[in-house]
Specification:
The chain is built from eight helices and 13 strands. It is α/β, with parallel strands linked by helices. A hairpin with a 4-residue loop joins strand 4 (about 75) and strand 5. Helix 4 (about 110-125) runs parallel beside helix 5.
């Protein structure tokens, strides 16, 4: 870590790894890493915010910094997040257009990146989910809807995006429209357990205890040969979750870890 952190590329890389960072903590960490006074760091951050390269958001009176959308940001080998109107960044890339959300930031927490990386393995050419099962994806606890929308862009026919938070439901609907996917994305605020499936692909970016609680429901709605992408466990929790999932008919086939979080892709037996 050095003064390059105060450039666009340096800050983007740092913020993607760190997630959404409280302003006071980021300024303190950057000042220590670059050996620059805090006033200089704050001035540079203001410049980057004004240029649209870094976003400053507020939640319950606390200020946060996170990467901006001036440039598309990679969240996988093909998937990138981009601001609306940015156009297709690269013919080999798959953009998900996602503006800053009032409740859920920009969707670039490490668990989101893990989910996108695993999703590409599931739906890529020769991927883990057979072509005949690429019908309906369930984005459980969808937030901004980025995972469900990414699944559609990678080849799923339809997606159901569910969140009990009404703000998340509104944001997911807006983002489906932004991406021209509202005719293939069904967004709902109903409880997950009220959905009967079948869902050959389940995307669950949720904390470990919630994932465990939902396993009986996932077992009911996932057909044989389907896939579950589960992120939101800490490395020390992943083995326990995988063992519990095995008791509900899911076998882990891929595991990835990033910035203190673990993601699993599991096949329904």
């Amino acid at each position: 870590m050095n003064k390059a952190l105060l450039s666009w590329d340096g800050l983007a890389e740092y913020l993607v790894s760190a997630g959404r960072v409280p302003a006071h903590r980021l300024i303190r960490e950057l000042a220590k890493a670059t050996s620059l006074p805090g006033s200089r760091v704050r001035h540079r951050l203001r410049e980057l915010v004004e240029a649209g390269q870094v976003c400053q958001t507020w939640t319950e009176g606390v200020s946060f910094y996170e990467p901006g959308f001036l440039r598309p940001l990679s969240v996988g080998e093909r998937l990138v997040l981009a601001r609306p109107g940015a156009g297709r960044p690269d013919p080999e890339k798959v953009p998900v257009f996602l503006p800053p959300g009032a409740a859920f930031g920009l969707g670039r927490h490490p668990t989101t990146r893990l989910a996108c990386t695993l999703l590409e393995k599931v739906l890529g050419h020769g991927g883990l989910l057979p072509p005949g099962l690429r019908t309906t994806a369930m984005d459980a606890g969808c937030g901004t809807g980025v995972l469900g929308l990414a699944a559609l862009l990678l080849g799923m026919e339809r997606a159901v995006l569910v969140d009990i938070d009404p703000v998340a439901v509104d944001e997911a609907r807006r983002n489906a429209r932004l991406n021209g996917l509202d005719d293939r994305a069904d967004v709902s605020g109903e409880p997950l357990e009220s959905f009967a499936g079948p869902y050959p692909l389940i995307l669950a970016n949720l904390r470990g205890p919630t994932l465990v609680r939902l396993l009986p429901w996932m077992e009911r709605v996932a057909p044989a040969g389907g896939m579950l992408v589960a992120t939101g466990t800490r490395p020390g929790e992943a083995a326990s979750f995988a063992a519990r999932a095995a008791g509900h008919g899911f076998a882990p086939v891929l595991e990835r870890t990033e910035a203190g979080w673990t993601g699993l892709a599991l096949a329904r037996k």
